[in-house]
Structure formats: structure tokens, C-alpha cells
Fold each of these.
Amino acid sequence: RRGRGGRRGRRGRGGRGGKGRTPASATRRSRRRSSQGFGLKEEEGLKARTTQSKSPTQSKSPTLTPGALIAAAAAARGVDENRDEGVPSFVCNALDFVLVLGGDGTVLWTCHIFGGQGMPPLVAFHLGSLGFLTPFPPSRIEHVIGHVVQGGFPIMLRHRLFCTIERNPKNCDGTLESMKDHTINHAACTKSWVVLNEVVVDRGISPFLTNLECYSDGEFVTQVQGDGLIIATPTGSTAYSLAAGGCMVHPQVPSILFTPICPHSLSFRPLIFPDHVQLRVVVPPGSRAQMYASFDGKDRQQLFPGDAVVMRMSISPVPMVCGGAGASGDWFRGVREGLHWNLRRQQA
């Protein structure tokens, strides 16, 4: 058995028909030529081939998340990957459109990571539960993407709010310790957010009513006593604001919604402001309740007496690709099918 194996091994080395094993020197020369053909050094070419040839049991490849891809692109350009802006501007400027697969929360998260900069059009496919902001079914993904690539698709511009928390200088970094010690961190006073749905100022777990002073372009509007206040966009009019008793507003109507949450008054009705005003919600110095502000349901911030939340319309709306029925058709379909608006049995 060993003899036959040896003879078979010698025939394998010598080869049939006079073909022998490639010498090591020839292998190195071919590797050098292949790596030079791709503009790589020999060590880099060998390293790349070694990485590709590893089996899953030998090593696990890194997960390619959107954050990892953005961080890699930012590092290649020398941009700090620990910044707070989300998607870098050079990545945003290089995009023709953004494909969104998910529900309404995925659309909000996509707008959140782009921040306040101008965004490319969003093409959203409905993979969630409600799908109010995702007009396309996943079964038509090839047709829709092909149509978008060819051009000539309708766009709906959804307005956003630009929001800033102005801290009282006595508690500028937003902590209770700084309020007691009167230390100031001016860098924390400049943080801002851009929201697609709404800004919510509420009392959290405090048992006391809110006592918020509201101003429009510096003019006093009213004092909110209740559970809180919602400042919403027309897109957000069908979200939390609707649940709190606010009216539905078409997303192409330029406006800012002012909706109280459980006001302690029978006559406090929601308002609609024009889009050019700047709203300011102030926590008065004598407020007993602990106040909180959240932005599209994220980044919940505690507010202390003397702090203010300032909101105005953002200069960068979100362009969203519409279906064949256009902007109004998509919105009314969502209102009827998603919210079951005016659903009743037809009278005979």
C-alpha cells in the first residue's frame, strides 16, 4: 500500500503528459505580476487573497453596518468619525437617492442621521406595520428603482423643524449639579436638532402640572398648564399631535402645529402658526415640575428653570419620492387606509 501510494505520489508530482507542479519561483512571479496589475504591492495582494480565502470557521468577517461604512469613508477622508453630525457632507453630496426599507421609524431614523444638511430624495418601501411615510410595496422594488433611475418621478417636500435648547447660564450643561454649583459649560448650550415629526415638552414622571411660557417672535402667546406641549410639523400632524387632539394638516401646507397635552382648561384648543415664525417655550424660574424635551422621540433632554426650547422651520426639507398618484394621493391613501379616517358603514 505504501509503495502504490508512493508511486501515485510520484506520478502526481511528475504529472501525466509531462506536466509538473509549478515551481515556487514561478508562483511568486505570477503573484507579483497579478498584484502589480491591480496597482498593489506584493504583500497587499497576498494579504487580500488570504483574507478572501478564510473560511467562516477560521475567522468572522466584520459586520458591514451603515455606521461602519460611514466611519470608514470618513476615516479615508481624514474626518473625525466620532463627530455628532451623522452622515458626512461629502457622502451626502455624492448620493443620488436613499433607499429606505422599513417602516415610518426607519424613515425618521434616516432623517436623524443626515442631520440638518440637505438630503437626497428618499425612496421608501413599506416593510413596517403602519407605512404612512412609505408609499411603495416591496413587491414593486425593481419597477420603482428602475423608474427612479430613469428620472421623471414626483417629489414631495416634507418640512422639518430646527430646534435648539437655550440653557440658563446657571445650569448651562443641563445637569442638576451645575445648577447648584453655578458652573457654566457654554458648549452644551449650542446643541441643536432637526426633527421631521415633532418636539415634545412634557413633565415626565413629575406629579406637578407643567407651567410653560410660550412666545411667537418674541410676543407672549399663552401659558401651558397640563401634561405638556407638542410642536409639530405637517408631517407630524398625523402622529403624536393627532393623538393629543390636534388636527391633520396636508404635508405641503407650510405651517407649525401647536398642540397642548391634556391641558387643565376646557377652552385650550390647538393652534396652527405660519411657517415663518419662531416659537420659544420657556420653563419659568418658579416651575415646580421637572421638564423634559424629546425630538422625534429621541435624545430626551432634561430642562431646568430658566431653560428654553426654540423652534423654527428648517431650511432643508426632506424630499420623498411619491407614487403614481402624487403627493396628495399618497397622503389621502395613508389617511384612509392607515388611520381609517371617516370610516363608517354607508347609509342605504
Amino acid sequence: MVDKGALARAVLYSVVILYLVVDLFVVGGPLRRSFARKAPNSPEVIEAAKDAGVVARIHYQPILLAQVDRRVEENLWRVGRVLEGLPREERLLLRRAALNELIDLHLVRLKTRFSQSEVPVSEEEIKSEVALFTRRFSSEGSYLAALRELGWSEKELRYRVAARIQQEKYLENMIEVEVGEDEARLWFEENIDQLGFPERVRARHIFRSTVGLDGEKAAAAEKTLRDAMVELEWGAEFADLALRISEDERTRGNGGELGWLHRGRVPEGLQDALFSVAPGTRALVRSRMGWHLLEVLEKKAARNRDFAEAREEVLAALEAVKRRDGLREYRKGLREREQNHIEVFLDVLERGL
């Protein structure tokens, strides 16, 4: 006996399947049009992404304009500059450079993700890199204020540091570099003028932060150091004052000692106070982090070096140049291989300028 219910279901299924086949593959009916509208490469989806601030997509994964602007701020912050007041053309160039960096990082991150087990990062490596980062700041308060400016927590900083170390290790494994002795000696002879010891000074300081302060509170930081200068004139010990009032946690315990400095390691606002005066001179100077009471202790004039003195530095410099060039070529090749999966929306990139 025929099961009429089963027969009806078979007929119904056949009709549904036939409808789907005709709709999706023959006439392009409402279902196919609906799916097409939801496809990641459809005009509707692209416009919605652009409205949401997506400036680029890599394998349909978005990079937001907000991320680009954050990268611009980070890049400017590293060199002591701010976005405010820059002309439109320069801001657009900065955005383009930042977007290119983010695209490269995203592509490398995709490669690294598949090689995580081959590129481990230890806790010691993360701690060491975070310590290097924090040493760029004159005090813990300045460091935390800078993190707040970037919108990062300390946990996010650690995550970013770990990701960068992992990417650098991956790229190092991908790019082999060798530097020969003859090559190093030739390079030294061609660049001898740039390889000499620069002018250096040994100095110490007492620091008071003005980050996040204005008006009377910022003025109070200056007054504290002016009062300290008077105490020094009356015979107070610099080391005692540094321990008592300096807000630089790294130097206050050793008399405010900054060690030997050359111009490349000194913020622009402090260079004149350190390099244009004689040893024994004190000066009160303001940087973007706060007020510094500086004292120059010793100076050493610039001088050239012979190859034996500069050998290790030359080898390291040549290796860095070759690695940089190799990295550029690797990223260029990566871009070329992935170019069909990279979309950039230039109209979004210019938004708000």
C-alpha cells in the first residue's frame, strides 16, 4: 500500500528543490537577489561598511578610519608632534602612510597566525620590551598619562608588545641576512664621518611633571624647581633634592643622574640647555612632559673612530639595513600576492579632513 503522506512530502521536497535551482541558477529570482545583496562584495554591503567608517578591507576583514587616526596619533607622538594645526595635505599623507602600515601589519598577522606554534613569545621577552618602552618616560605618571592619551590599558600594551615581538620573530625567520668582513670594512670607509663618537654630555636632573596639569598646578611645578635652584645656591646637595622632590622614579634615587647623552637621545627642547653650556651650569627648562632642573657635569667632544672600535656597530648596522630592505621586499611581495583581497576606500580616507 502506498504511503500517501510520504509521497506528498517527496513531491513537496521536489518542488522546493526545483524552485531553488531555478531561482538561484536559472532566472536569478528573489532568493538569489537577496543573497547577492548580502554578499560581502555587494554594493549594498560595501556602502554600509563605508558608512560605518571602514577605510579598507583585507579578505573582507575591516580596517576602520578610527584605527588609522589612532595610528597617525601614535606615529606623531613617537616623534613629539601633534596633529593639531597640520595642513590638510599633510594629514592626508599621514593617514595614507598609517593605512599602509596597518595593511602590512594585517597581512603579516595573518601569516603569523598560522605559525604561532613556531614563533613563541616568552614572558621575559614581553617584560623586557615593556621595560624599554616605559624607560622613554621621565616618570611613571608620564608613562600612565601617555597610555591614557593613546586609549590603551597596560594589559593592551602587553598584548601589542607580544604581537609585535611575534611578528618580528616571524619576519626574522623569513629573511636571512649575512654580512662579510670585507663588506663591513668597505661600508665603514664610505661612512666614516657618520660613525664617529658624537658630542656627549653627562648630566643630571630634577623633574616635576605637568602632564594633565594647567594653570596654578603647572605653575607650582615650576616654582618648586625655582625654589630648589635657590637651595642649591645656598649649598644644598643636588642628590638630596633629587631624592626629595624629583618625580623621575628612575633617577631620583641615584642623584638624578642621566648618564652620558648625545643629541639623538635628547628631546629637542632640552638640547640647547645641555649642549650649549659649560660643565657646572644649571638651567631650568620645560619639555612637553614637565619642568627639568638640569645640571651639566662633563662634556666630551666629537671624534672619529677606527674600524676596530666601530666593527660591531658596523656589522649590526649593515645587518639592520639588509634586514630592512629584505623586509620591504617581503612586504611588497606579500602585497602583490594579496592585492586581489585588499580593498581601499579613498573617499573614506579623506573623510573629516
